[in-house]
Amino acid sequence: MDPWREHHCEEIGRFIFCDNMLAMLDAFDSQDAVDDWIAFLDAVRASSIAFEHAKRPSSKIFGTVFHVLRTGKSLELIMASHKLLVDLEKHFPRVHLSGSDDSQPSSNSPSKLVVAEEAWSPIIFCQDNVTAAGEAGDKECGRPLDPSSFQLLIEELAGILTETQFESSNLKPLQNMLLFQYLVIALEGDFLPRNATMNWNMQRESLLNMLLGSRKTIYKGLVKDCMKVICQLSQFQNELNKYAEFKKSSESQSPKYRQTALFLALPEVVKNTCVSMEKLLVMIMGLDFSKKKADIEGHTIRADGTRTPAMDIILDELAYSEDVVPLFLQIFTEPKWKLEIVVQYLWKYITKPSVRTRKTSGSTYDSTFHGALRCFSNKTGTKGIIKKMGADVVQFLLAHGFQAQLSILAEENRYDNHAGDQEGRANALSDLCQMFISAFDSLRSTNQHMEILPIGKEALFTAATVISMKS
Amino acid sequence: MDMNIDDPLDFEFEDELLKPAPVINNNKRKKLIGLDDLVEDHYREQNKLLEKQTKHTKSKAKKNKRSYDDEDRKEALLTRIVEKCHNQLKAFGEEEEIPTWGVQVFGDKKAFPPLHLPDFGSCNLLQSFLNNKLNSVVGLSAEKGDIFLEGLLINGWLLKLAFLCGHVEEPIAIWAFNTMLYSPKEELQNFSTEFWCVILSSRKEVDQLPVKIDWFPEYTDLRRALDLYGFLFKFSSNVGPINLDSDTEGPPQNIRAWVRFVTACCVIRSKKPIFSTLEAEEVVEIIISLFLDRQFQGLMVLLNDCMQAIINYFTDEEWCLSCEKIAKFIACRVSKDLNCIQAVECLSEADSRFKQLRSSVAYQILLSCFEGVNCGEEILRSLIAVNFKDKSCDFLKMYIYLVLTENWVLSNSLIEDNPVIYEMFSLYLRHCSNLISATDLRSYASKVRHRAAYLVHFSVQK
């Protein structure tokens, strides 16, 4: 037996701290201090993740690593602490379903939710924790974030392009994006198993629900800022080359390799941040859905309060500023919710006297994408929609909706190989394409000079190709 | 959530995200004997001495009222001593210039090939659409083929079509591959990488890709790309000092696509083996050398994933031999400074192959550090024989040996069964932690002592 495996992380912390191996907590600047911190992170990793039977590090260790992520002054440290936190999160989930790791998944016993109550979490709510954490460490930044800090973080991300943020040696935007990515992973690890229980009592206590329901969270602003972040970041990706030139021209004190390192890392981090943001929005919509269901079934209580569904806020935001539509829809790719967004947007503007009944559970009309496409079958109806939404927005919505619907159909195709169904699905695909093409025909018939956007052309090309494939 | 009414409400606590780094704990600082304190003490002593002597001289002068020359001479002497001390202190401070790891593995970029546009005529996907009546709206033509294709790629249609048709034609595959590796546009790079990687990593069948791909790149295509990026295949950190501030531009952004593509290639070995064993070994060596370049600090996760994939690309039989070959290769390339620590530590401890490689690389480097030594026991014997009291003892070297030995012994599951090595290792650690004086101010002395003490604490406790 290797005694190396026996020790606890707590001891590393005590040992290292007492021995002052880490020098001072704020001394990040010198390479020497960076090396010491890296040694610390390695020691935590070695004692917690590298061995099979290792234990979850203590809250103090978690807090310290979190502190490094939030205040580290070198790319190396920020990256290493971020990776460590993410790996720890996967290794020691705070919440999991007991049935999921059993050797026999076929056993029919309902999986139970196992919650490690005492485990450190990067987000906290009740003040009991606050004081406890406050006493434990004198380091503010090692403390978990409270809801208002989370909101502040998103706000900062939303302003990422407006300031001169991407200067050659400014690590702050990168740090914030990585912090955010980590928080989303933590929220997800907590929410997904809880949501899988389909039990509102479990779902209610998810970090996500508590975060959104906190009195400190300005919920609408949060969702709006989330969308803004997506748009800003996708814009950044498109304009990366501009920043490259900026990088070259800027006279910076920091060594060249640091600039290149940052410049190589940024697009990667930006891309992953977009993915995380999409995950967050999908989770929020999933939570809304669960809550609505619990509400209908009578499981909610008054303390659950009411919240505008994120979907409504997103739709308002998209309607409010047309520029957001293409940017947002390009980044947001999760087909199920993307289709939902497109369909609800379209139905908002398709005149139907029964719209008011939508909020009740049984809808009285065909509120699917197909249903929406059908509304473009006559010229007058189409004209009305274009008048309300603008021709460009209609094209964007139809093309993106078509793509999402294609993905969903293709996905079903891939997981189901029954020969009979295969043909039925192929028919469903070509029907969809046919309907899409007619909707565009109708769109063009309203105005001979209507400019078809590139994405519209590409969608038409795809539809035509899928149809020709079948014949 | 149950809450006590008397407790403050949650919004009464402010945790400001942007709060500057907190003031450090004074108790902790007091325990430290910093360089500043030492310097201060030194000055204080000097001043006392000076004052004493001045008083002494002055009183003497008062008594005798004799020779001003004498006083002048003494003053001059004192000034000289003070100056000397001052200079020494200054030099002492400057010595703290800390060595760092870093190897330049990229030289000058070479000219990229012109982006190969698909041969329109042979691309059935585009060609067949020309006669479609919808083309009056779409306006596709042979001249505009490439721009249209870019749109299809960026907006995700190309990937959808690949899955719906279950087929990627050769011109499209080549075009997407070249776009991925050579396009300067971030968007195109991203989406072409995604195009390839999603198709490659889509897992439906065990031994067959869900999409028929008419063209596959070979390793030489990947190697060529790296060469054009300026990668120095013959890099060696032994040659000359590392110029961390050189004017070479660094690798292009496409290197990220390269790494990701290689990662995706590794997971499809059962369906399509792209690398031979030799080539896979070279990929491992390349990734390790990327880890040694400080410009890649921000891409750790990407490199790590790639390393994981390529290490698991080998079959068990291949791995036994390849692991040692790679370790030897790295050992003879990497310089015996902090770079060799980085070469070992960049290998995460995620799984047993990683640990095995980590241990072998550390072992091979150690072997090459000691001349005439050819087994582990001899390495440890030489290490135990080091006299730390010796003025010429190079603690940076000691530190490197310590870290290498630690990785060699502790990452190797076989050594657990070897009590001799284990005992010697423990003895060596105790040497380092006990025989280096806490007041030894030579640089790296304390690091060796601390690290060894830490290891003793955790690995030798029974």
From TrEMBL, chain A:
InterPro entries: SNI1 (IPR034561)
Sections of the chain in a coiled coil: none
One GO CC term on file: Smc5-Smc6 complex
GO MF entries: transcription cis-regulatory region binding
Domain of life: Eukaryota
One of the GO BP terms on file: DNA damage response
UniProt-listed PANTHER family: NEGATIVE REGULATOR OF SYSTEMIC ACQUIRED RESISTANCE SNI1 (PTHR37243)
Protein name in UniProt: Negative regulator of systemic acquired resistance SNI1
Organism (species): Lupinus luteus
UniProtKB/TrEMBL annotation, chain B:
Taxonomic superkingdom: Eukaryota
Lineage: Eukaryota, Viridiplantae, Streptophyta, Embryophyta, Tracheophyta
Region feature Disordered, mapped onto this chain: 49-69
Composition bias type Basic residues, residue spans: 55-65
Species name: Lupinus luteus (European yellow lupine)
This protein's name: Coiled-coil SMC6 And NSE5 INteracting (CANIN) domain-containing protein
